[in-house]
Amino acid sequence: MAGAIQDFSQFDISKEEIDKLVAEVVRYVLFKTHQNSGCPIKREELVQLVTKNYSQRALPAHVINAAKEKLSNAFGYELRELLRCRPSSATQGRSTQQTGVAEAKSYVLISQLPAEVYKKYVEDENSAHLSGFTFVVISIVHLAGGKIPEGFLFSIMIWFHVLSLHKSYYASVVDILWRHLKRMGLCETDASHPVFGNAKQALETLVQQRYLQKDKVNGPEGNTLFYELAERALDGPVSEKMKEYISEVLFRDDSHFVILML
Question: Where does the source fall among the domains of life (predicted)?
Fold first, then answer.
């Protein structure tokens, strides 16, 4: 982190003050991530930590960059920056004057450990099911075109029926994914699952974690609430892992292989 610290000479701040600011940001990120179940941390929160006692305009960016190095070198985490996605309905018909508006930034922690090492030494078995639930749900939304009505979790079997009328490839894939949810013990009619709790609240958690976002669309039958993929699900590493997960499920599920070949 020596290179990052040298850059602070322009701010007329001592090394001790720099170390304190960086440590404060690192501590805040670690505790906030744990406290809020991995929900993204807004950049403005980190900026406020730095600027509460210092007024230098460019200082927050330098402190955050130094904190990134510290998190990577000392803790094995990448502090990954995300740009908040707008709901698809909000992006349609946006005027050119809006294009200059800065998108809100946030950060999430991603382990840099190899997957097998993380699973063996770090992953909490008591919460591993939540990761599985997340990837099943975002995979379903992805295969639906990135957007699906709010009631999809509770009426998904009806949706399967509609898709199956077309004998589509995706109908078979989504059917497999839903059966994996059932293997976890989660059914479309569950109001209170012993592990996941309320299924609708579990979806709301994915919204807070920015895997999904809600979009209200006006239609001939009134307002319809949709779930669509948010920036965290669309981010490179998660998106690639999701596609690998879908492929893994397909090739592992021999019972549907024949259907997929039709």
Answer: Eukaryota
Q: Residue 47, Cβ neighbours under 10 Å: how many?
A: 17
Nearest 10 degrees: Cα torsion 225, 229, 230, 234? -170
Q: Which residues pair with 108 in a beta bridge?
A: 80
Q: What are the residue ranges of helices labelled H in 76-123?
A: 88-91, 115-121
For the domain spanning 1-93+100-114, the CATH number is 1.10.10.1200
Phi then psi dihedrals of residue 94, to 5 deg: -70, 140
233 phi and psi angles, rounded to 5 deg:
-75, -25
- If you search the block for the tokens 């009505």, which residue do you land on? 149
The residues facing 222 across adjacent strands are: 219
Tokens 């039709």, residue? 262
Residue for token digits 């894939």?
A: 173
Which pair of structure tokens corresponds to residue 4?
């990052």
Position 137 scores a pLDDT of: 83
Question: Are 147 and 141 a contacting pair, CB within 8 Å?
Answer: yes
Q: Give the C-alpha distances (Å, rounded to integers) separating 115 from 80, 87, 211.
A: 17, 32, 20
Q: What is the pTM of this model?
A: 0.73
Query: How is the chain split into domains, by residue range?
Result: 1-93+100-114, 128-262
pLDDT digits (tens, 9 = 90+) for 127-168: 666 777 788 888 888 888 888 887 654 454 334 434 443 444
